[in-house]
Amino acid sequence: MVRTPLTEEERLRGFALGRTLQRARQNRSAAEVAQEAGISLDTLRKIEQGVIATPAFFTVAALARVLGLDLNALAAQLEPVP
């Protein structure tokens, strides 16, 4: 299966998501957050670095829950400005 290449907008949104999640972690370790969210530490690191620019919805939802982020606010924050 061949994946469609990401657009520049998707790539930038992925970086913004990663930075937002990283800031929301504050002083908590990435390992602690990943474990609570039920994902691997490697996956969390890749999301935070923008390597995984379009993570699965349930992954983002789990991270938002652990970090106390509202999904609607998170989505609105990452929407492109027209």
Account of the 3D structure:
- This protein is an all-alpha fold.
- It has a single domain (8-78), classed as lambda repressor-like DNA-binding domains (434 Repressor (Amino-terminal Domain)).
- It has 5 helices and no strands.
- It has helices spanning 8-25, 30-37, 41-49, 57-67, 71-78.
- Helix 1 (8-25) packs across helix 3.
- The termini are far apart.
Descriptive key words:
5 helices; 82 residues; globular; 434 Repressor (Amino-terminal Domain); single chain
What's the helix count?
A: 5
Helix content: 55-70%
What structural category arises from helix and sheet content?
mainly alpha
The CATH fourth-level homologous superfamily? lambda repressor-like DNA-binding domains
Give the integer mean of the pLDDT values: 92
Please indicate the count of domains. Answer: 1
| Annotation, overall tally of beta strands | 0
Strand content: under 5%
| Head-to-tail CA distance between termini | 33 Å
In the CATH hierarchy, the third-tier topology is known as 434 Repressor (Amino-terminal Domain)
Q: What is the H-and-E element order?
A: HHHHH
Per CATH, the architecture is: Orthogonal Bundle
Gyration radius from CA atoms, angstroms: 12 Å
Give the CATH class. Answer: Mainly Alpha
Principal-axes shape call: globular
Uncertain spans:
none
Please outline the major beta sheet. Answer: none
Q: What's a quick, concise take on this entry?
A:
This protein is an all-alpha fold. It has one domain (8-78): Orthogonal Bundle (434 Repressor (Amino-terminal Domain)), CATH 1.10.260.40.
